[in-house]
Amino acid sequence: MVPLTEIKRLKLFEQLPASTLEVLAKDIESLEFETGNYIVSQHDEARAIYILLSGAVQFLMMVEGMDDFFVGTTSERGALIGWSVVREPFRYTASVRCTEPCRVFKLRRAALDRVLRKDPIAACRILRAVAAALVDRLEDARELLGQLPKTGPRTEC
Amino acid sequence: MTSALELLHESPVLGTLPPEDLRFLAARAATRTFRTGEAIFEQGTPAEACYLLLAGRVGMSFRPSDGEGVRDGENDRPDMLHLRQYDDRGRLLGWSALLEPFRYRATVTALERTHVLVLRRQDLDERTDSHPEFGAALLERIISVLGNRLRETRIRLVARRYEKEAMAIRTLLDQSAELLHVDSPLHKIPYYLKNRLTVADAFQALELVRARGDEHEQDLAAHALEILEQVRVELTLYQDLQHVYEVVASAPASMPAGDIRKRCCQEFVKLFNRLDYVIEGEENLPDNSGHIFIMNHLFNHPDNTLPNRFQLTLDTHFVSSMILLRKYGAAPIRIIRKSRSDEFGHQKYYDRLGYIYVSSGHVDDSGTEAGITPEERRRVFLDAARDHLLAGRNLVICPEGTSVATEDSPVAFKAGAFRLAAYVDPEPLIVPISVANFDKNITRKKVAAVVHKPFRLSDFVSDPTDDAGLFDYINGYQRCFAGFVRETVTLANSTAPD
Question: pTM of the predicted model, to two decimals?
Fold first, then answer.
């Protein structure tokens, strides 16, 4: 079992009571990925959420007829990968590839779901952390968009 | 007027919350009206409330951290990046009121008089504290909204980065597959977008779905229409070109060629005024007309090919309409190559404009001009051109006799324009005009034209009948003209589109 002290330091879990953490800890496993490996693949069923402990990843979106399209990156400890575990239709919306060797915690959706359904206070805290992570990612994507040159003249239609 | 409770029930995001939660929110919600241009909330300010759109239309924009956004929508400030417009009733705006650090992450502005329902953060917090199930349910919905926004933004990134909106639309539909019925008309959109002739159908279908589709279809159609904004500009250009063609080719038989030329140029003025262009050196234009304007000639972008496979040459029409018509009030006459027998559209168009035809290598003259020697043909051309010049009409000649890409322009000059200058008495001026980027997609790229100092051939060539001496001069001048073109490219590319 992953030590509670390590789990508790993560943003996703930092506000949870010890009893909830103990339940979750039983279902958390520690994994390592080599550079170039995918942690999740776009469109796959979201069966687990991953928490980045070390390393760096990039987010990629599949575009038909082209290479995967780069839409963001993170190396932040505690970054969430696979937030689609809490949103229907529970499919990953992007692929996540390691650009450095990565160490992550993996928490299966079923285990997370149990806590979300059983403990609404814990659910609020976890979902707030997921939403905050999503906001950061959204802001990153908007920043990328803002960096692109304008494509053409403004004209009336 | 709809009650707050009714609106909450209608909201796609909040409508499925338990009735007691909706009643709680309705009892505390207030309606508020914003004037056109008024900010409902601004990025970076404390997020004290979220809003449900009741009626009206709003624009969402984002200021990147370096403050260098683009001007991309009505009522936007220059440093803001336009994200989306919303006019769907029940749309949730300002979810930042639910998330730390409780600061708005974007700016939302009323694009017309807009009514909203205000849900104060303190009320939402109060309900969450007393009913954590409510808080969890609300956050699940917020996550869903955020997921959609993230998807939209990433798809917009694809569209912008590759300038391939059709691909972005396909990606958008792929990403939304779980929400779409298999018989949704939206599935047809990527196919409509593949061909220039069916792009208008794509817009028609999207407008229809936005008005009458189900909730998901309406949202996707609205998003697709925003992604396709630039494609709509291209479509408008294409339809304008079709219109110009018809104005000329279908002009009344009794209409004089000069009038048709002028009408054609006037239509092109309208078309080019909607695009981004720069003209310099107009002070070099002679005061009076009756001169020879030489210019480099660029390919046409294949997207502008009309259904009859004809391409209206944009660079020469630009010079004719935006420079010469404006200065002299009359459309110039161009020297153009004779149509091939299978170029029905070419012939139908140019026949009406009264241009002067010259033969090029690929035209078989055996039918119409059998028995005429090249020398006699040249004389026919010189006489016709001289008559126009002496009558005070300007001539536009592309001395390359072909068209190439901006990067390769100009190729070698032929002697016709120079021989003509030497043939006419009094000798007309030769006015060089260099152009750039007309071979690109001109809805996305700035085009440029520069008028350079006019000259008389006789100032440089004492004996134009001496072929060796004449070509020596022409070849040297062509190299000088290449420098003009490079300067024009720099001019076009030095300033971002306005």
Answer: 0.69
